């Protein structure tokens, strides 16, 4: 059976609860970065601040510095939101992401870094993402539905919203039929799957819900864990 490691984001979680919410580890918030510390010092998440007008070489300098910090944490997986602009050309994005692979190799992080797909970033569009990955095939991403996937943000989307507010509501039964199981079959069986059930506070959380967003994350984590392990 493939090893499945579940982590928890600290998005909206009070510091006092950080050490209690994780399964295999809980990221710990620090400024705009979240660095995984409890449990086993194995998970780290890093985000850059928004920097309008910065070029690939500027972002790469930041990336090099943050990579050195990340290396010292003994991480298992690093989810990185870098290149915080959607105005770069494909060529600029390819230049940046190619440079990150060089930095990863220099810091001993090769294969451990996954770049997040998100609005307002280089991977804001699935079409741009596909083009960039074609030119930088060694790159790993978080939640791109292809063989490039290295980490899963396990939220449930709907036809009307990017984030389902209450995945336990029967009205979302269809959305809960997890298509990502097809992706898992393509993973390297010798490496663990890592995932985060990502649910956050208002305005993303359902108004009037009897459960907190943290409880939703726990419930979805418990539901998805055995599904991934099948």
Secondary-structure topology with pairs:
Layout: E1 4-6, H1 18-21, E2 27-30, E3 33-36, E4 43-47, H2 56-71, E5 77-81, H3 90-106, E6 113-116, H4 126-135, E7 141-142, E8 149-153, H5 181-184, E9 193-196, H6 213-229
Parallel strand pairs: 1-9, 4-5, 5-6, 6-7, 7-8, 8-9
Antiparallel strand pairs: 2-3, 3-4
Helix pairs in contact: 2-3, 3-4
What brief labels describe this structure?
single chain, 230 residues, alpha/beta, TIM Barrel, 9-stranded mixed β-sheet, globular
Brief digest:
With 230 residues, this protein is an alpha/beta fold. 30% of the residues lie in helices and 16% in strands.
Report on the structure:
By secondary structure, the chain is α/β, with parallel strands linked by helices. It has one domain: TIM Barrel (Alpha-Beta Barrel), CATH 3.20.20. Helix content is 30%, strand content 16%. It is built from six helices and nine strands. It has a nine-stranded mixed beta sheet with strand order 1-9-8-7-6-5-4-3-2, with helices on one face. 36% of the residues are buried. About 10% of the residues have low confidence.
């Amino acid at each position: 059976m493939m090893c499945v490691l579940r982590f928890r984001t600290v998005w909206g979680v009070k510091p006092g609860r950080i050490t209690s919410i994780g399964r295999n580890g809980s990221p710990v918030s620090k400024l705009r970065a979240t660095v995984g510390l409890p449990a086993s010092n194995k998970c780290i998440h890093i985000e850059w601040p928004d920097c309008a007008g910065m070029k690939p070489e500027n972002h790469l300098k930041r990336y090099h510095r943050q990579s050195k910090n990340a290396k010292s944490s003994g991480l298992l997986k690093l989810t990185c939101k870098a290149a915080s602009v959607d105005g770069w050309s494909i060529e600029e994005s390819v230049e940046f992401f190619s440079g990150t692979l060089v930095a990863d190799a220099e810091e001993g992080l090769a294969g451990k870094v996954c770049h997040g797909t998100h609005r307002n970033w280089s991977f804001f569009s699935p079409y741009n993402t596909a083009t960039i990955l074609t030119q930088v095939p060694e790159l790993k991403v978080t939640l791109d539905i292809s063989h490039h996937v290295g980490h899963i943000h396990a939220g449930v989307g709907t036809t009307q919203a990017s984030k389902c507010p209450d995945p336990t509501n029967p009205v979302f039964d269809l959305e809960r039929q997890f298509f990502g199981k097809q992706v898992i079959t393509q993973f390297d069986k010798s490496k663990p799957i890592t995932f985060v059930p990502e649910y956050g506070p208002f305005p993303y959380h359902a108004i009037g819900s009897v459960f907190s967003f943290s409880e939703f994350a726990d419930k979805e984590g418990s539901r998805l864990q055995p599904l991934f392990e099948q």
